[in-house]
Design a protein that fits this description.
This protein is α/β, with parallel strands linked by helices. The chain contains 13 helices and 14 strands. The strands form 2 sheets. Strands 2-3-4-5-6-1-14 form a 7-stranded mixed β-sheet. It has a 7-stranded parallel β-sheet with strand order 9-8-7-10-11-13-12, with helices on both faces. Bound molecules: nicotinamide-adenine-dinucleotide (NAD). Nicotinamide-adenine-dinucleotide binds next to helix 4 and helix 5. The site of nicotinamide-adenine-dinucleotide has 31 residues, from helix 4 and helix 5.
Length: about 375
Amino acid sequence: MSAPLSLLLEAPDVRAVLSHLGRDRFIDLLTARLTETLRTFAPEQVQIPPRAGVQYANPSFGLLEWMPAYVGAGETLVKVVGYHPTNPEVRGVPTVISTMCLYDATGGHLIGIVDGTLLTALRTGAASAVATRILASPHSRVLGVIGCGAQAVTQIHALSRVLPLERIVAYDVRPDAARSLAARVSFVGVPVEVVGPEKLGDLVAGADVLCTCTSSAPGAGPVFPDGPTRPHLHVNAIGSDLPGKFEVPVELLRRGLVCPDFREQAVLEGECQQLTAEDIGPDLAALVQQGHTFEAARERITVFDSTGWALEDYVATRMMLECARELGRGRRVAVECLPPDPKDPYSLLESAESAAGSYLSAGRVRV
Ligand SMILES: NC(=O)c1ccc[n+]([C@@H]2O[C@H](COP(=O)([O-])OP(=O)(O)OC[C@H]3O[C@@H](n4cnc5c(N)ncnc54)[C@H](O)[C@@H]3O)[C@@H](O)[C@H]2O)c1
């Protein structure tokens, strides 16, 4: 019998998949897959609790969270995600670093381990694309961006795939982050104008679609003042993902239709914290399933309250694993120690064999 195997995708494998498909095709496929998953989403068939984690202030502020999703297809994803906003400047690595582990829910076998850093950025972009396609005016040409870090790149990319963007106006409290955005998104082919804090009101007033993706601290928001906007403004608020952290002024939320990705989590961590239950609109799955009923919403202010949903991570992880398998990428590694006698952990020492062969040959597990 062979050892229990899990598919490990290392960074070069993820790079190979993305290079092979190309970033446009990858984000388009992911957006399409997410839309399809939401179209058939039935909450009674899945278990996705709001995420939990640990938060610390020593040696610097940060948190590590876990996001499980039993998706009803015999599989469970557990995403672990770190948020350390001093990372880029102090350690030269992204603020958000993550790993995804996919498990077979029939017996608990670890099917695959994949990077979650790129996948988080991609699926967050794809989720905004799904919401934007339903809620924003299809003629939206001007995108305002507040917060010019890693997520801004995939937000801009994903939105450029669903809107005829002609201009991006960007602001960041760190002028260096704002200045470098144009080079990071040059592949999109839409000019980026950077503005200072004195022009923040103009940025918001002139935007057809606004994306807030800041690492603003809990208690420090909102990240722009309430003021005039276009009547059809659509906001993708993706940075609010902690208790007490908001990006959007409550007055603007109250004027708009606010749609959370995952309501139970958004009321704890998202813009929905600022609202009462009656003020909260349909969630992302309802938007997709009843899209035609929300067509009139394109004429008014709408807000996608994106806190990050483990269902999106599942869709992205599955897609990455399948693409890697098709390309023959990844390494099958033996992580689990399954002993020949399932009731004697030490029987592992007596034989090089394990119970894994029969477990895997039972036929449930597919990578
Ligand atoms: N909704 C989701 O699913 C999801 C997924 C990933 C990340 N996020 C959140 O998105 C946010 C951004 O993540 P990132 O990876 O881009 O981080 P990042 O550190 O790469 O970029 C954040 C940027 O925001 C800027 N900023 C902070 N406060 C600001 C303010 N008041 N106004 C303008 N700019 C400000 C920072 O200077 C920085 O350049 C984080 O809060 C993260 O937790 C959400």
